[in-house]
Write a structure and sequence with these properties.
two-stranded antiparallel sheet, single chain, 226 residues
């Protein structure tokens, strides 16, 4: 490609990070974004199977699932939701700060994002401990009686599949953000090179959005009339 006008410093910086298989930075960015969106779609397909399974079982056992849902801790679940919603804001702020060349601010808000994600996991650990104490761990420590005991156990199985798989994704997301925080602090990224952080932010938003479906299904639906 022949340049007729001298590139700006920002454009020159972007070209410095251009992989050889691409003609221009915009093409590289589009390809990376498309690849991430395809990956996110495959993740949603997996969670879609779990959500569908939950919906079918909820229809078949409405009273049992409602009873099981009332065992969840609404206060802790709300705290987890608040932490993730806030983390979506902080990672967007960090990305914006990086694009503006504010490396220190970007580093700070990435640390806040990782801290909020870690806080979510810690709170969820308290929930798991509480369920252990209440004998609500299916196949390991489950001791519930009554006409809906089996449906309650089925709810707990699906609950652990949903929250456990979600937590694994969040652990990965926190690890990625911490790694990027170090690289941002060292100056590996900047206004001319932010695609990696942008893709990480997309993944983080996926984890948050999935929780926005899990929270009402597990914590709220059983507190409404059957």
């Amino acid at each position: 490609m022949n340049a007729t006008v001298a590139d700006s410093p920002l454009e020159e910086g972007r070209r410095a990070h251009l992989e050889e298989q691409f003609d221009e930075p915009a093409q590289q960015h589009s390809a990376a974004s498309l690849g991430m969106w395809i990956f996110l779609a495959t993740e949603m397909l997996f969670f879609g199977v779990l959500f569908t399974s939950y919906t079918v079982m909820r229809v078949l056992h409405p009273a049992g699932f409602a009873e099981a849902s009332r065992h969840t801790d609404l206060l802790l679940g709300s705290g987890e939701t608040a932490a993730l919603l806030t983390s979506s804001i902080t990672i967007v702020i960090s990305l914006r700060a990086l694009k503006l060349g504010q490396r220190g601010l970007a580093t700070l808000f990435l640390l806040l994002t990782a801290a909020l994600g870690t806080g979510f996991l810690v709170i969820h650990g308290f929930e798991y401990h509480s369920e252990w104490e209440e004998h609500l761990i299916p196949g390991v420590r489950f001791l519930q009686f009554g006409p809906h005991a089996r449906a309650v156990e089925l709810f707990e199985v699906l609950s652990y599949l949903l929250t456990g798989w979600h937590s694994i994704h969040l652990i990965i997301a926190v690890s990625v953000v911490l790694g990027l925080t170090y690289r941002v602090w060292r100056g590996a990224f900047g206004p001319d090179h932010f695609t990696t952080l942008e893709l990480a932010a997309l993944y983080w938003h996926l984890v948050d959005i999935i929780w926005m479906f899990i929270f009402p299904l597990l914590y709220l639906i059983g507190r409404a009339p059957v």
